[in-house]
Design brief:
The protein is an alpha/beta fold and 261 residues long. The chain has a single domain (11-260), classed as NAD(P)-binding Rossmann-like Domain (Rossmann fold), CATH 3.40.50. It is built from nine helices and seven strands. A seven-stranded parallel β-sheet has the order 3-2-1-4-5-6-7, with helices on both faces. Helix 1 (20-31) packs across helix 8 (224-235), helix 3 (69-80) packs parallel to helix 4 and helix 4 runs parallel beside helix 5.
Length: 261
Amino acid sequence: MKDLFKIEGKTAIVTGGSRGIGFMIAKGFVEAGVKVYISSRKVAALEEAAKELSKTGECIAIPADLSKEAGAKVLGDAVKAREEKVHILVNNAGATWGAPFEEFPNEAWDRVININVKGPFFVTREIMPLLKKAGKPEDPARIINIGSVAGFGTGGVAFAYGPSKAAVHQMTQNWAAQFAKDWVTVNCIAPGAFPSKMMAFITDNEEVRKSMEERIPLKRIGSPEDAAGLSIFLCSRAGAYLTGVVIPLDGGSLIRASVEA
């Protein structure tokens, strides 16, 4: 039982790992003894994140634009040149776009769908051969897709974001059914409010943040330990029998929303 949550010695890829929830998860993995590859489009920020993460373990930066099929191949080729197998893939890279309904542009739909939905598909397709090599009946390879509570709910002006995350939730269950035979589990974390660039307009404003926290049953936004903890659980022996599940990581926000509906 003492090794139930142990993931030391595994190899992981975390897309969008230079900031936000991706960085939180990558940091948790590195500190748990996992060799971590992080990828994003912005080279300077990515390399700075890898440098910071390498203070406590092994982290390698691979720049790639994961909103494009060619970018997914860049990542896949780079990892395949270094590794024979990969135990963990976290599809975290994402984007949002806010605008009034009447002004919401075509390019917003393209950008959000390309990075949030097509990106995870293309990256997973590239990395799947390495995941299959790592998977075992008692210790499957793991895919974690990052969805959102927005994929369950309604409202707001990010009209493409919610549908894109609902697609990620469905894709998670679709893949889980397909890949179980290959000893690859697929689960999804659906975060609520966490400190990130995407949420900065709320979390960086103390008054707005406090107002949001009052509406969350657990009275706070998420922390790095929350994101890393659930990810480590899903990738450890403790989470080996779980697949096809979308887990809200939101302090109870969805529960409150359902009660108020």
